[in-house]
Give the backbone structure.
Amino acid sequence: MRPGDERLQADLAASADAARAAQNRSRLVRTGGGIVALLVVVFAINAFSNGSFLTAGNLTNVLRQITYNAILAIGQTFVIITAGIDLSVGSLIELTGVVMASFANAMHFDGPLLVVATLLVGVGVGCLAGLINAIPVVTLNLPPFITTLAMMLMARGLAFKIAHGQPVPLQSGAFTSTGTGFVLSGFRAATGFPGIPIPVVWLAVMVIAFAVLLTRTRFGRYVFAIGGNEEAARLAGIDVKFVKAMVYVISGGCAAIASLLLMAKFSSGSPNTGIGNELQSIAAVVVGGTSLAGGRGSVVTTFFGALLIGLLNNVMNLLNIESYTQDIVLGAVILIAVVVDELRKRYLAR
Amino acid sequence: MKGIVKTFPGVRALDGVSFDVRRGEVHALVGENGAGKSTLMKTLAGAYRADGGAIEVDGADVSIDGPRAAEKFGIGMIYQEFNLVPDLRVIDNILLGHEPARSGFLDRSKALARATGILAELGIALPLETLARRLPVAQQQMTEIAKALVRDARLIVMDEPTAALTDREIAALFALIAKLKARGVAFVYISHRLEELPKISDRITVIRDGKTIETRATADMPQDEMIRLMVGRSLSAHFPDLPPVPPDASEVLTVSGLSCASGVPIEDVSFAVRAGEIVGLAGLVGAGRTEIVRAIAGADVAREGTIDVDGRRVAVRSPHDAIAAGIALITEDRKAQGLVLGMGVRENTTLAHLDRFERGGFVDRAGETATTNREIAELRVRTPNAEQLVRNLSGGNQQKVVLAKWLIGDARVYLFDEPTRGIDVGAKAEIYALMVALLARGAAIVMVSSELPEVLGMSHRVLVVRGGRVRAEFARADATPDKVIAVAAGVAA
């Protein structure tokens, strides 16, 4: 033992208890404790207001409604953790929607193969658009706010041109089950549980897959490192340009998947279904506790953020609250979420 | 300040610290890293709130609940990393928050008069129209002092003010402090450079583990006594014995004709470092020493020149290339370049070598934790555990985490840029010992340091850099302070 080691050991032992207590506290607060609390409040509201809220059918419906926004928000989470932003995802829903519908209509085969081929085409277009978003960001260090704003306009315009301003109806019936089908629907008669909507299954798979990508792989670690300190990440040998480009590619790809599910639901690719979706997805990420300053965030809490917004909408609809009031409430919830997040950070830094 | 208490998650940073500063006095505050100096000063400046204790100004109890309050009580704080707005001009920085205005609009002529007035009082010249980020460190510091005076500061707290200054700039700073002292301004002076305290301070307070150990007049506090109080044990020799380089040692790093245009341009830099050898790069701040090691490590891309590692030519176009070639750069600014402060010790330690912890496409966290715990023990990092956020560690422990990040890579070449800046005596000795241990592994070391005794005491050979070029080379035996300074300042070859 070197001189001083005993002192160090004693110090470590003394601080261990305090550290453990602090960690328990911070773990609860860090992993979206606030969101869980808010969810509890939502359920409490229901208990007093309306019995029709806590039914299997209604809750399943909420899940299906939030699917599209939650999928967008997954991609947005990656972008925001690198301290970026993607404003183009709403327009990319429209662009990939009309491209996919036109593609499917032009093909001479049908069935599940057509769904897979259409998905691949859409995801390809979405990822390509994401790459175009990223290139000026990583090569010239331009702000992503600007490049994705430009893409938002270009993609929307292109979608209208391709579709001549009209929705493109799907001729194939192969998409119907993807958009509106259920799994585990055999208990409907006995229990009232309608089964799990297929889009929700897609969402679940994506939440798990992207959560694993973000928390268990090198790529995910690098996303956090870049958001936390880009220069330190570069000097550690991380290919910062590649990783940053990839988060926009992921975001574009997520937009395409959300678009396919929407197209399958409505049996058409529409050039004006996506307006405002980019902001909705950012709201879900922020309500989920991901910091716009970068370096921190989670796919799982983003899902809960989207769920919270969806539940609020649902409760307000059930209570017959008019839509303008709903907007006010939603805006307030977003504001409260970021204020709570900031207070939480200060609490942890004390 | 009396009985100040401040706790962080898992750390009791201050545990009843008390001290006082008199009018027109320079009161030095010394202690090891993590002793609580910076926390104490941030409490005084309103950046943190104390959990207990009292602060009195002119005998009256005050509550300092933010930087504004500190300013109101005449307390000015000059941080080690400074607090200037880089893209504002010097004049705007000096007057920030105190801009003279006439009916709501900025009054430019009054601003100019105010700023030049302050500078005349100080007897210094600053380029008022230049953007703050273009200033050399010493002038940034002068700007900070001018800024404090605009706010009528009666107590100026300086954290490691000389860490990045050359000897001549330090002399100018001391002259300025003496002038302000005569006008009744008091200073709290935090420094790890114990040898300069007799020149500048009136009294010295030693703190250790968040407690006040002793306050004495500087004349009654010899340096070895001060060190003993700081570390709670006596330290022997300052520098370890460098093992001689074996005569048959091969060249590990060979740099030839290196030129680079980023920052201070460097031109035609050539040198070699053998296995088990430390080459020190001496020179004034802004001479291009940092730029040389950055170019070798791929942090900046060299325009011309070649780099060989172990006799093999390597193309270094990015930090990634350099790491793959076995070159590790320990940067001078650990917060801006070395660490992701919002990540834990484990994630920072493995960041540059995460590929080694990959199992079937996933990161092996158990492996990471095991490696990190080994490094924590080896380097004696003071942290509750491997998950503690690096932000919550003290400067010396943060530097150890940076070292751990590069040590786990078994690099062939270690480039240390100001490895002991702002670090206490105990941690310095540990870092020197670590460098010797690396030599035993057959690594080659290049060290940039602005502390001349460190360069002379820890190098087998010293290269003197001026104006982006290597101007002279001295073997350890010939490298005397006067010879090195003469070349660095341009008065000899």
Observations:
- The interface with chain A takes residues 7-12, 209, 231-233, 297, 299, 318-320, 322-324, 329, 331, 336-343, 347, 351-352, 354-355, 358, 361-363, 380, 382, 384-385, 387-388, 405, 426 of chain B (CB under 8 Å).
- Residues 2-231 of chain B form a domain with the Rossmann fold fold (CATH 3.40.50.300).
- DSSP finds 17 helices and 24 strands in chain B.
